[in-house]
Inverse folding.
């Protein structure tokens, strides 16, 4: 992962944003369902928000750790999502098309053909009006 200079403003935004999200998670049950406050979320949320307001430079290591975890999760999720998409959608479509003999690209070999170009009739210019 490339090194990006972390500014005070970035650290302040990080502290406030993540802190407020943690506070919302912690206070949600109390405000909407009159249940106990989630201390595990309120404490770090408060610490992040206060540090973001007062001394954002204290959050540099936390920010870098958070970004590293996000980078790793993105790397893993990309491979999972693309793998599921390829093996769950593209591969079955290819197998079905192969079994049914469908070839949308018309890749057949014709030794007597002069060209493989598909001649199309040009559309009138009016087809660009009222496209939607």
């Amino acid at each position: 992962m490339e090194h990006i200079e972390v500014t005070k403003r970035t650290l302040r935004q990080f502290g406030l944003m993540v802190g407020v999200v943690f506070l919302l998670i912690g206070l949600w049950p109390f405000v909407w369902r009159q249940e106990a406050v989630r201390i595990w979320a309120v404490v770090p949320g408060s610490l992040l928000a206060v540090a973001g307001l007062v001394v954002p430079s204290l959050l540099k290591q936390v920010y870098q750790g958070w970004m590293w975890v996000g980078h790793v999760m993105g790397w893993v999720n990309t491979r999972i999502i693309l793998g599921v998409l390829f093996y769950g959608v593209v591969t079955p479509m290819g197998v079905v098309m192969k079994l049914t003999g469908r070839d949308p690209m018309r890749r057949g070999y014709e030794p007597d053909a002069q060209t493989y170009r598909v001649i199309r009739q040009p559309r009138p210019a009016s087809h660009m009006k009222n496209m939607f």
Q: What stands out?
A: The helical segments are 8-33, 39-54, 60-100. The CA atoms of residues 107 and 116 lie 9 Å apart. The longest helix spans residues 60-100.
